[in-house]
Design a protein that fits this description.
Helices cover 32% and strands 22% of the residues. The protein has 568 residues and is an alpha/beta fold. It has 4 domains: 70 residues, Urease, subunit C, domain 1, CATH 2.30.40; 127 residues, Roll (Diaminopimelate Epimerase, Chain A, domain 1), CATH 3.10.310.70; 91 residues, no CATH class; 237 residues, Metal-dependent hydrolases (TIM Barrel, Alpha-Beta Barrel), CATH 3.20.20. Strands 1, 2, 3, 4, 5, 22, 23, 24 and 25 form a 9-stranded mixed sheet that branches.
Length: 568
């Protein structure tokens, strides 16, 4: 019986982890047929109808898998006003100018919604207040959503719409920041953000679908072929589910893994089994020959604490600026109840824990669950795990708990971490090499839109460990090869997706074609990132940086272009 013929053959590429210096990849009906020497692949799998692309030495990587991000959140950012530091927003006047332009361009939008705000990028690291916003927007409600996802700033019109007054009490697990007279300043932390979001007119299902389509397009441009939407839930869950499916039906080139937020959807005793939710939500959806993307069900998300940049991550020792020890969003007893019920119902658990006090609470809960049985097959996770100590890492390894890290945080937010913690503690953040060396499973992700989310930037950050201002956060012995595996194979294993993660026969042809990697060795790239171009450590010339040339999902090119020739 003859071999099936390929629809597409990528030849003369450097296939990641392949033993051949130059290889060819044959693709048929969205899956990889073969990876071998170019002459063998062409002889066995080419036909007159096969598209053959000469990659001229470009690298063929598995498609990047962002196993912790917020797809809808990214889409909302692309629909709203962009006030990220990366967009040049580093002071109040520039912020107001950006909001004014967006307001003029969107006169039909009753509220001005801005995303990516980060006070740490401002000269004095001071939060914007309602008073700052009121000068330009006295009557139109404005909300700035913090890049961390754990805070927001509202102007007076938005506070009035949300009925937030001096007498309004702080909600459980949240804070309405107030001035010396008890009046709200406009800064809202953790669950207090929900007070204002409930007052904002909900986006329509079509707007949500458009947001996901925009997010998928952005992710494809970065070589990302799979992504997890962490913590979906709340009053618009039905619309969000429908929008995810609609986006896939309209061709979104992305494998979406939905991870429900347990605390916003259920009480501990009400958590359903995953099988029940699969039936209720109509999943999996797509992922066939007609729809290259798909929607699938992932882990159960829980939050143990907040974020370092908003001083809400729970620490054992106070923040360097004297702002306290942060907060646990769930008391240990309640966290244990949620985790125990989720575990009993058969869920993989993914618990957000950034500060060392929160990580300790999560580890203690996992250690109690270990005796409940069925542990080894569950692949539980700690999300972020930024302040893990060596002693904690040993316990994580014994429990086989995966650390899902976001190394890009260091290159985008590292200076803010130094301010929050001091240099000694900041140098111990996100120690992926230490975790690996002590036997902990490590996967990479971005938490996009907290940071822009390019996996190549995340890999670079893990290798270089440098803040935006050039402060070095200590050696961690992490290589480029380690980084690529953490963003592909390890991430796929973390979300329990056996269809992707490697460039191997029978797997889905979800690939990232990357140019700009050195031809001699991966070690060469690592050295170039660390000491590049004679500049200060880690700042190699931009023209020498790797970049995504093309992205392939289900055998189809969804970003970039590939040259082609016909084989007769």
């Amino acid at each position: 019986m003859s071999n099936p013929k390929a629809d597409l053959i990528l030849t003369n590429g450097r296939v990641f982890d392949a033993w051949l210096p130059e290889s060819a990849v044959a693709i048929h009906r969205g899956r990889i047929l073969a990876v071998d020497r170019p002459d063998r692949v062409l002889a066995e799998y080419a036909s007159p109808e096969t598209q053959v692309t000469d990659l001229a030495g470009s690298n063929v990587l598995p498609g990047f898998n962002d196993c912790h991000m917020h797809i809808l959140g990214l889409g909302f950012t692309l629909l709203g006003a962009d006030v990220r530091p990366e967009a040049g927003i580093r002071d109040v006047p520039t912020l107001i100018q950006t909001l004014t332009r967006w307001a003029a361009a969107n006169p039909g939008s009753q509220w001005i919604r801005a995303y990516g705000y980060n006070q740490n990028s401002f000269p004095d690291a001071r939060h914007v207040t309602a008073a700052d916003l009121d000068k330009a927007f006295p009557d139109r409600p404005v909300v700035l959503f913090h890049a961390s996802g754990h805070a927001a700033v509202a102007n007076s019109a938005a506070l009035r719409a949300a009925q937030i007054r001096p007498t309004t009490p702080d909600p459980a697990n949240g804070q309405i920041c107030r001035d010396g007279f008890g009046a709200p300043t406009g800064v809202l932390l953790e669950s207090a953000v929900e007070l204002v979001t409930k007052a904002i007119p909900a986006l329509t299902r079509e707007e949500r679908t458009r947001a996901i389509l925009l997010a998928a397009e952005r992710l494809a441009s970065m070589g990302i072929t799979s992504a997890s939407d962490m913590g979906i839930g709340g009053p618009h869950l039905e619309d969000d589910l429908a929008a995810s499916k609609a986006a896939i039906a309209r061709g979104a080139p992305l494998r979406i893994t939905l991870c429900p937020d347990a605390a916003t959807l259920w009480n501990p005793s009400e958590i359903p089994a995953p099988e029940q939710l699969l039936a209720e939500w109509g999943l999996p959806f797509g992922g066939d020959a007609d729809l290259v993307g798909c929607v699938r069900l992932g882990a159960l998300k829980l939050y143990a604490d907040g974020a370092l940049t908003t001083r809400t991550a729970a620490l054992e020792e106070p923040y360097a600026d004297g702002s306290g020890n942060g907060m646990l969003l769930l008391e240990p007893e309640e966290l244990n109840r949620y985790m125990a019920q989720g575990h009993r119902q058969g869920w993989q658990l993914a618990v957000h824990a950034i500060g060392d006090r929160a990580i300790e609470a999560v580890l203690q809960a996992y250690e109690e669950l270990e005796y409940a049985g069925g542990w080894a097959s569950r692949s539980h996770r700690i999300e972020h795990a930024m302040m893990v100590t060596e002693a904690m890492a040993v316990r994580m390894a014994a429990l086989e708990v995966t650390a899902v890290l976001q190394p890009e945080f260091l290159m985008r937010l590292g200076d803010a971490y130094v301010l929050a913690l001091g240099m000694d503690r900041a140098r111990k953040l996100n120690r992926s090499g230490m975790l690996r060396d002590l036997g902990v499973r490590v996967a990479f992700s971005s938490d996009n839109p907290v940071v822009p989310g390019n996996p190549l930037d995340g890999i670079r950050a893990a290798v270089v460990r440098e803040t935006p201002s050039g402060q070095h956060l200590g050696e961690d012995h992490w290589s480029v090869m380690d980084g690529i595996r953490a963003y592909t194979a390890a991430a796929a294993k973390t979300v329990r997706d056996t269809e992707v993660g490697f460039v191997l026969p029978s797997l889905r042809a979800d690939l990232s074609i990357v140019s700009g990697l050195p031809e001699d060795s991966w070690r060469g790239l690592e050295l170039r990132l660390r000491y590049g171009s004679g500049r200060r450590r880690g700042h190699a010339a931009e023209e020498n940086q790797p970049h995504v040339q093309a992205t392939i999902v289900g055998g189809k090119v969804v970003f970039g272009q590939l040259g082609q020739e016909r084989v007769g």
